[in-house]
Amino acid sequence: MNKGGDASDRAANETEARLSRASVGRLSLYLRRLEILLREGTTKVSSGTLGEALGVTDAQVRKDLAYLGHLGHPGVGYAAPELIDAIRRALGVDREWLAALAGVGNLGRALLRYRGFADRGFRIVALFDADPAKIGQRVEGLEVHSPDAMAELLPALGVELGVLTTPAESAQAVADAMALAGVRGLLTFAPGVLRRPAGVNVVSVDLTVQLEQLAFLVQHGGE
Amino acid sequence: MNKGGDASDRAANETEARLSRASVGRLSLYLRRLEILLREGTTKVSSGTLGEALGVTDAQVRKDLAYLGHLGHPGVGYAAPELIDAIRRALGVDREWLAALAGVGNLGRALLRYRGFADRGFRIVALFDADPAKIGQRVEGLEVHSPDAMAELLPALGVELGVLTTPAESAQAVADAMALAGVRGLLTFAPGVLRRPAGVNVVSVDLTVQLEQLAFLVQHGGE
DNA sequence: GGATGTGAACGACTTCACAGCG
DNA sequence: CGCTGTGAAGTCGTTCACATCC
User: Fold this and answer.
1) Would you say the C-beta of A44 is within 7 Å of strand D?
2) Considering the domain A21-91 in this protein, what is its CATH number?
């Protein structure tokens, strides 16, 4: 449903063909691998060598990279710096993203201190928690606000993304509130399925599902 | 590979057909939904109502559940308690799993306090960290050991699973060491791809990949 | 020669549609 | 009649294989 739609797209010239979810995930992996290779001095890489370390076939690598345009040089391979730039642009990590985090519990605090966010240009600039005891506290240099303040604060700060580390029960309400406050993407760690507010993209990291996945694999001797 | 093998399986009659990874993930979601429904007093559920809240078609639900055996009652639906038991058995969460955690940093500590683990029968019984300053400390009632102690401790405790919250650089070495110590499944949070030791199953939760997935979706207006 | 880009074959997963059972 | 279980059809993603270009 809703295929082309009213798309208020700016001159979306390059990356037009549909990237599958799996492809996008692999692009992330290529990107990290390429950054390591470049740091080690490698400036040219072939689809075979790039895929090898990641367990991806060379054909798959070429298909994935073909979406970004004609970056490969037949007989030679890909130029690492060029490729890195192209993937960064395609993934949207060539700029900074402002995010708000809701649910300042154990996991929330851990994520606040997590380097990976900042390294990729994701900056958490606002904290929210429903617990009155936490409101007003400072965590990692940021004040904890009441969820009621979202409607005012998020647009003012220009926050585009939300990170949900609330209990499962409150996740949906917080997601809806964030959507109303103009957030366009949510990364949720709350177990369970979130009904996505209109115009909001959701990526879910459900630890319970992952754990059960693992238990299943081990139990059934999946290799 | 290794289909029937030497499997020290107790009468493994039912769950024989291949469950896809996606199916297993959905079974987790069904399970949680069913538990909520049952708590609310619902004891019968049809494929349509079960799938609705999760965004899964009725046919898909039936296909998934068919792997577990003939549990459905035509014209009626499925009996929730029966179904819950069957899914628990299939996923292997009808028993306790002992796990060790390596990397007692922010994320590791957050996971230690995370309820979801214990709730599903995953018990963390040993901690490891390479930092000499941390070795000997007690965290959440558990002593932090040197990684060198794994070979001795893990088999003695009967640990089957490992949780990796180490930096990316050390993840592979720790994974290999755990494999040697008899661990059969790993849940890793280290960014990057792990080369899986023989006989070990790996589930990776790569936050960087998830973040970039989200940035991509938002950037390209994926709804 | 060596490696890319890509149609074609293949395979895996999902949806359709319907027979069959309570 | 309602809802399951399942072959058949359809869709999507991956691998193959090869023409093409440096």
Assistant:
1) no
2) 1.10.10.10
